[in-house]
Amino acid sequence: MPDPHVQSTDNTKRPPLVFLLLLYPIAIMGRRMIGVLDHAGEVFYLLVDTTRWFLRGIFRSKYRLGKSAIVSQICRIGVQSVFIVALVSGAVGLILALQLSPPLDDFGQRDKVANIIAVAVLRELGPLIGAIVLTGFAGASIAAEIGTMVVSEEIEALEASALNPIRFLVVPRLLAASVSMTALGVISSFCSIVAALAISVTVLEIPYQTYVDNMLTQAKLVDFLTGVIKGGVFGTLIGIIACANGLKVTGGAAGVGRATTYTVVECIVAIVVADLVFTAIFFALGLF
Predict the structure, then answer these.
(1) 112 lies in some domain
(2) How far is the C-alpha of 239 from the C-alpha of 288, rounded, in Å?
(3) What CA–CA distances, in Å, run from 234 to 24, 39, 72, 131, 250?
(4) 3-class secondary structure per residue, 171-183
(5) pLDDT(241) > 80
(6) pLDDT band at residue 5, thresholds of 50, 70 and 90?
């Protein structure tokens, strides 16, 4: 037992409590950031592996792509999403026309509603609305479907049968999501523009020919093409993130629920960030 009258030679000092309180949030953010980077690496690796199987299916007859599986996924992901995408996009077109009219009236430029809506919808809102709707409609469904296969050990059964899960599960869903989102972006833009045209002619009393002339004068082919490119990339992000979250499910039914939730959140964040990157690149290249 040490003598209490003898002074301790241990010079180690604990950090002040305030210092620890300041470090704790930084440590939490660091762990979160490491987790985000780790998950991003998993998604990227899955994308590379999926691309490899896709190229094998194209250039090597030994690894044929399942055309029936791809068509089936396109029907399930894309065709069944058309109505809800058209409904939401049409409502957004009506909202934009009605919201833009009063401010433009102050400058006597009500007919310029067509100019603003044409550019905003073709460049941004068309593919963005379609991608967000597709995330909730198909992204969560893909994650839940693959996650259920993982929980019920169907993935292990495929591997035991010498069937690669990425080739038979991920490739068809990723292709279907990319193709479907490209088409849905065009459909979304079309529905928004038509809805805005209808409300502008009937309620805002803008002459039909004036509206069409202003829209065609303002909108360029590059605006349409940028929207198409964004749609394809957004679809790829939705498909690969949903498949990645589905394949890493653990914990039974609760894990499937977490995977679907994370899929929706991650897809929306990835879509918005990708949209920002595209906008910055197109602006730097002078395509606007």
Answers:
(1) yes
(2) 29
(3) 36, 18, 20, 6, 27
(4) HHHHHHHHHHHHH
(5) yes
(6) low
Distance CA 85, CA 129 (A): 8
Structure tokens at 237: 């992000």
The CA–CA distances, whole Å, from 100 to 96, 221, 226 equal 6, 24, 24
- State which residues form the domain around 151: 81-285
- Predicted TM-score (pTM) of the model is 0.85
C-alpha gyration radius of the chain: 26
pLDDT tops 60 at residue 78: yes
Q: pLDDT digits over 113-122, tens only?
A: 888 898 999 9
pLDDT level of residue 276 (50, 70, 90 thresholds) = very high
Q: Is residue 59 one of the residues assigned to a domain?
A: no
Q: In whole angstroms, what is the distance from residue 16 CA to residue 247 CA? A: 44
Rounded Cα gap, residues 8 and 4, in angstroms: 9
CA distances for 247 relative to 57, 69, 178, angstroms: 22, 19, 19
Q: Where are the alpha helices (DSSP H) in the chain?
A: 17-59, 67-77, 82-105, 113-120, 126-134, 140-151, 154-160, 165, 171-202, 208-218, 221-247, 253-285
Instruction: Please give the tally of structural domains in the chain.
Output: 1
Rounded distance, CA 52 to CA 216, Å? 42
Residue 54 counted as domain residue: no
Residue 94 has pLDDT above 70, yes or no: yes
Question: Is 195 a member of any domain?
Answer: yes
Q: How far apart are alpha carbons 210 and 70 in whole angstroms?
A: 43
Choose among 88, 284, 113, 79: nearest CA to 198: 113
Using CA atoms, how far apart are residues 25 and 166, in angstroms rounded to an integer? 38
Residues 261-275 have pLDDT tens digits of 999 999 999 999 999
